[in-house]
Design brief:
The complex is a heterodimer. Helices cover 70% and strands 2% of the residues of chain A. Chain A is mostly helical. In chain A, a hairpin with a 2-residue loop joins strand 1 (149-151) and strand 2 (154-156). Chain B has one domain (49-273): MetI-like fold (Orthogonal Bundle), CATH 1.10.3720.10. In chain B, helix 1 crosses helix 13 (241-273) and helix 6 (107-118) crosses helix 8. Residues 1-5 of chain B have low confidence and may be disordered. Classes of the chains: A mainly alpha, B mainly alpha. The interface between A and B is large, with 111 and 105 residues.
Chain lengths: 324, 274
């Protein structure tokens, strides 16, 4: 590829040699302007528009829209779903990362592919899978209806589709890889020497995990949790399939945004933006925390490289605890 | 990396057990359920359900819009990555952080605000609609929404490659008399091709499955306004489970093909790096 350049030597080479490997200032600023314009239209305007539309009818209308009982129910449901699905995914992610990063076994890459699978499935198809499994026409639908749960002398029908369990399952499915994906490279990078040392010194497996492994991967873990949580609270497609859209009962915040938007009136449109503004705020907080963590990791990485340059080989995400 | 010989770490059984349990319950069983139901269809029925006129129109919009969105992502993503890596300008770090905004923003919010922006009385629609550019409730709107959700892919796959590009090669090209444009076309561009294609495939794959943002900005009318995931949703609402499953299988197969393509591209790209 570089060979092509040799073919012809350009006549006005003195001009290029002056600039070396830089574009001329005009080209540079034209490129920057186009990039900035694109970011304006595709990043800034959509974001500002959410808040402008939400507050378009005044601050009072904004809070009235948010205090609507059905919107409150949606906010509560979103928080409940995230509070169940995120910790479960953390348990899974930590276990999967431990097994994959610290041990060698056959079929490891197959396992990683399977864990990543939910990312390549359309959310709607993901939701459909649970409908096929638990819906009335599905494999377990009738069985669940015929086998109610007996608790304290009462009968409870287990509803999964068009109910909260289905929403939790769908949310867990789409957020399944997040924590494991962030943790695996971090845990691989820290190696096993420190854990081996702790075990040799007589620490139990749990102690080793809590005091050696966890501190060294905590930023990676937090990073994964933040991303997982953002997606869990914002998931639309998969939840939309299994929820049944029962206002006040199975509507999460993104679904509430849709039903308000489809309400048609100016007031319900503004209310849709009011609920959406909370989700946009969540996205901004997520982005802020994410950037903060990345800067922190980069700084620590630099410092560690500096201090331990001769000993340290390529470690992707070291943390200060490693070097104390 | 752990070595099997001297590995005295405990917990393999426990963590592997938990992993296998979650994976089975959350991914494998739901997957198997869909596949088994799809296998219950005769080939003839499947073909009829998966390729009827309405489905074909949905594929056309899904893949057409995804393609144009991915092309847009390549053009602007490459430019953005270049500008972020090569130039210093005020606000660079903020923009760098903001590139991930489409990943962080719930898709429903993205669709809502984009539909509003490009609608007749929206901030952008006000100027664009009189010019004949209708962004809301049209196929163009679908492209816009998909461009938004796929934006970070090209930028984020290109950035590390650009950062590690050896400037000496460019200097050599300049010394040998190549103009800046020629250096870019003959020296830089070939190195960028594998990550650009990877970014394109990632953005395209994401766009094909996207639902949330598109429902808000598309007209959602049969024959021309429906994307494939939306048609699955419609089939479900009409209790046409087999119809929904047939479409889902088509989407799944295409996602897997794309996944394989992306894997090959990523390997190619990493080969290029070393």
């Amino acid at each position: 590829m570089a060979g092509n350049v040799k073919k012809k030597v350009n006549g006005d080479s003195h001009r290029q040699s002056r600039r070396g490997t830089e574009e001329s200032p005009i080209v540079k600023w034209v490129l920057i302007s186009i990039a900035l314009a694109f970011c304006m239209v595709f990043l800034l305007l959509p974001l500002v528009n959410v808040f402008a539309q939400a507050l378009g009818q005044g601050v009072k209308a904004y809070f009235i829209a948010l205090s609507d009982p059905d919107s409150w129910a949606a906010i509560r449901l979103t928080l409940i779903v995230a509070a169940i699905s995120v910790p479960l995914n953390v348990v899974f992610g930590v276990c999967a990362a431990w097994a994959i990063a610290k041990f060698n076994f056959r079929g490891k890459s197959m396992l990683i592919t399977l864990i990543d699978l939910p990312f390549s499935v359309s959310p709607v198809v993901a939701g459909l899978m649970f409908v096929v499994l638990f819906g009335m026409n599905g494999f377990l639908g009738h069985w669940l209806q015929d086998h109610p749960l007996h608790l304290f002398g009462k009968e409870y029908e287990i509803k999964i589709i068009f109910a909260i369990p289905g929403i939790v399952l769908a949310t867990m499915f789409v957020t399944f890889p997040f924590v494991a994906r962030e943790l695996i490279p971090v845990m691989q990078a820290t190696g096993t020497e420190q854990e081996q040392a702790a075990l040799t010194l007589g620490a139990s497996g749990w102690t080793t995990f809590w005091h050696v492994t966890l501190p060294s991967v905590k930023w990676g873990l937090i990073y994964g949790i933040i991303l997982c949580n953002a997606r869990a609270m914002g998931e639309f497609g998969a939840v939309s399939v299994v929820s049944g859209h029962i206002v006040g009962h199975t509507e999460t915040m993104p679904l509430r945004v849709q039903s308000l938007y489809e309400g048609g009136s100016a007031a319900s449109g503004a209310a849709a933006f009011a609920v959406a503004s909370l989700l946009a705020l969540l996205a901004l907080v997520t982005l802020g925390l994410k950037t903060l963590l990345e800067w922190k990791q980069a700084r620590e990485y630099e410092r560690a490289q500096h201090a331990l340059a001769p000993i340290q080989e390529e470690r992707k995400f070291p943390s200060p605890e490693d070097f104390r | 990396m752990a070595t099997r010989k001297f590995n005295a770490l405990p917990g393999f059984g426990l963590t592997m057990g938990v992993t296998a349990f979650f994976l089975t319950v959350m991914v494998l069983i739901p997957f198997a359920a869909l596949v088994i139901r799809a296998c219950g269809l005769s080939w003839h029925d499947f073909w009829k359900l998966a390729t009827n006129a309405r489905a074909m129109a949905a594929y056309k919009l899904t893949f057409g819009a995804s393609f144009f969105a991915a092309v847009g992502n390549v053009i602007f993503g490459t430019l953005l990555a270049w500008v972020l890596v090569r130039y210093e300008f005020p606000g660079r770090r903020i923009i760098d952080a903001m590139v991930d905004f489409p990943f962080a923003l719930p898709t429903a919010v993205a669709g809502l605000t984009l539909a509003n922006l490009f609608a007749e009385n929206g901030w952008l629609g006000k100027f664009l609609v009189p010019l004949g550019i209708k962004g809301a409730f049209t196929p163009l709107g679908v492209v816009i929404a998909l461009t938004f959700v796929g934006m970070p892919f090209v930028v984020r796959t290109l950035q590390p490659v650009l950062e590690h590009l050896e400037r000496e090669v460019e200097e050599a090209a300049a010394t040998l008399g190549a103009g800046r444009l020629r250096t870019f076309v003959s020296v830089i561009a070939p190195t960028l091709l594998p990550p650009v294609l990877t970014g394109f495939a990632l953005a395209f794959a994401r766009a094909v499955g996207e639902y949330g943002s598109v429902v808000f900005i598309s007209s959602n009318k049969p024959f021309g306004g429906e994307i494939a995931p939306f048609l699955i949703m419609m089939r479900l609402e009409q209790y046409d489970y087999t119809g929904a499953i047939a479409l889902a299988v088509v989407l799944l197969v295409i996602s897997f093909i794309l996944l394989a393509v992306i894997n090959v591209l990523e390997q190619w790209a990493s080969h290029f790096q070393s």
